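The record is kept unedited without comment:

——
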Amino acid sequence: MTEQLPANASMRDIFDFCTRKGIPSVAQGMIELPPPVGLRKLASELTLRDDVHTYRNRFGTEEYLDGLVNLCKSHYGFHEAFTKDNILATHGVTGACVTVLSYLKTLGKNRVGLISPFYTYHVRELEQVFGEEPNVTYIKLKKNPDDSIKTASKHFYLDVEELENTYLKKGLDILMLCNPGNPTTHVYQKKEIDALVHLCGKYDCNLLLDECYCDMVWDGKIYSPVSLSGDQVQDDVIPKHVFIARGFSKNIGCQSWRVGYLIAHKSLIPKLMQIGDPVYICVPFSQMAVGSFLKDDLQDFVKHQDQTQQLMRDNWKVLSRAFKNALGWEPIEPEGSMYGLFLHKQDSDLGAVQSALELGVGVCHMSMFVEHTPENTGMVRIHCGITHEKALQIKDILEKSK
């Protein structure tokens, strides 16, 4: 009998358990793919320079900002009016989110709506900024009434009418969500994003979007509020109530580099810098390598994204079949991010995790992503950001255990 996990086990607890036991884990979303070789060479060359080891420009170095503008215009198709004045360099996506929340707190904004299921670190960020018991209203995603949908959207549907009448009308200062979703894998479509931007503006609510997985859309591309600019640009390409956090921990695998960026209305960037800089001082010098890479080797960046997405799909095909065959779990087809979900029929999510551990693989229980940590959501989550060899190893373990 495998050692029993504690009732409050986190994904890191599961990962540590698997490490002790010497068994593979797909519980913690830690991408195992190295950054592109060209980017790593740029970073190694930078360390030999004498002028990079001091504090950097508080908004971000010119190399980084120029590279981001090239990325956003050439690859993401942002409007021509988008400039580096819309960007603040941050310590990863977390640094961007904390900076925005801290800035809004100075304006007396503290009533937060959090789309549920949610990314667990968003709760930690809210606790860091607003205290141990932040004023959070959880807005639950529902089953989609459209039976023709076969992907994650079938299980995670945003009822826009309910959002307006039940939540926004009664008063929210901040609405926070992840797109593509972690853990849901749901990718919000143009209609949903347009509605979020419109309704938040209508009810004086700030919209904070964590777009960490913006390059990991399994079919098509992400639709972001920056896309709303279209042909009509008034005073800026992004509304003043919208903030977008992005980074490079997942899409190019440099998690420990702590290089991210915040997109906002150009009039707010100096104010946001004054909030974030005293906490984080400056973004590490690795931002310069990322900036040069995005400016001079953008095709290599795009190639890396294509390879990463194909790897995710290939791993999901292998793992979804293997878990279904071994445990009877029903796969939920992902739409984005680096994750995949399964429906299980056990008495609890942790019980389903325990069943996988009995066979020799670590997975994550869905309950930790839902308010009040219910015992049973009927789902578990895995991550697909592993080597294909590891995916095949897990498949073999599950087949032999069965």
Q: What stands out?
A: The chain has a mean pLDDT of 92. Residues 298-327 form the longest helix (30 residues).
